[in-house]
Amino acid sequence: MRTQLAEQFGIDYPIFGFTPSQHVAAAISRAGGLGVLGCVRFNEAEELDAVLEWMHENTDGKPFGVDVVMPAKIPTEGSKMDLDSMIPPEHRAFVDRTLADLGVPPLSDDVEAHTGVLGWLHSVARSHVDVAMEHTRKYGQIKLIANALGSPPDDVIAVAHENGVKVAALAGTSAHALHHIDAGVDIVIAQGYEGGGHTGDVASMVLWPEIVDAVGDAPVLAAGGVGDGRQIAAAIALGAQGVWMGTYWLTAAEYNLGVTGDGPSTVQQALLKASSRDTVRRRIYSGKPARLLKTRWTDAWDAPGAPEPLPMPLQNLLVGEAHARISAADDPEVVAMPAGQIVGRCNAITPVAELIDGLVSGYDAAVDRMSRTVAARQSR
Predict the structure, then answer these.
(1) Is pLDDT at 116 greater than 50 in this prediction?
(2) N or C, which end of the chain is more exposed by having fewer CB within 10 Å?
């Protein structure tokens, strides 16, 4: 499973694993892929700095990346207090009423309402970039910075390149992909409709070759619904240089290290039960279309009388504490979690090394089957 992009990053397999867990990201890198740490959960630069320090100590010198949420156009943010005042009272009342109806208790006094919503703001995302670049200059292990909201600003791309860091950005259309290349982005992540989190509305099998053809020699990572070695073989057959995977790692054994102790977390219990049909694409998570696990929380937003979601970042601020309360509760029927349709294959708590071994063996078997069809044709 060698591609030119894998060679450039010095990794064994062109498997780029996005995850908010440093334990999972480090395990992906140790197992031969490229772990990419999601930074949106960090409200303070000091938090990210400490986690990146941990990553350096736990990746055996292997490369890894970071993922930020930064719009190309700098928004007028104002203070958090100003943003809070823009949230309609009826939206707050709906959230409070829904949490009560679902039986979600308030946060206990000893639990901090660490919502992570500030990580969606441009100014905070920029601080994430600054911290990552400091670590790059110090250790040299951070090899990729990815942006989930289009092309990063020009100066962010420039500082990444000055430090020898590749820049990637997600795209849901070929027009988005071409804009990324024009902006100086190195790698396009072609994310199909099936993916978790923010997605467009074009399915992966259509989108991947469309973007490969559009961007020419620029490397493309295939994303959206990847959770099997056969799909990696298909992505490379369609011209991608590797895959970008997120949902697949949510049931990794390492996900709960340092968090919940033994056994699946409440969120993992919900994921393990879900089929590929148990997701919905809504704007209720961030204000932009995102695929989520279908639960009683998403059902409440679909019910008659529910308000329309607010634009980003107001929706984040509206539901941030609600998400914290839901996470602290112990009810798999009420979770707020981005997840792609591949969740139907997440059926067991499995160590990352075994997950990657399964991908590689599945890829090998798929390539072998295809090779046999060529040999059969040549023998006729």
Answers:
(1) no
(2) C
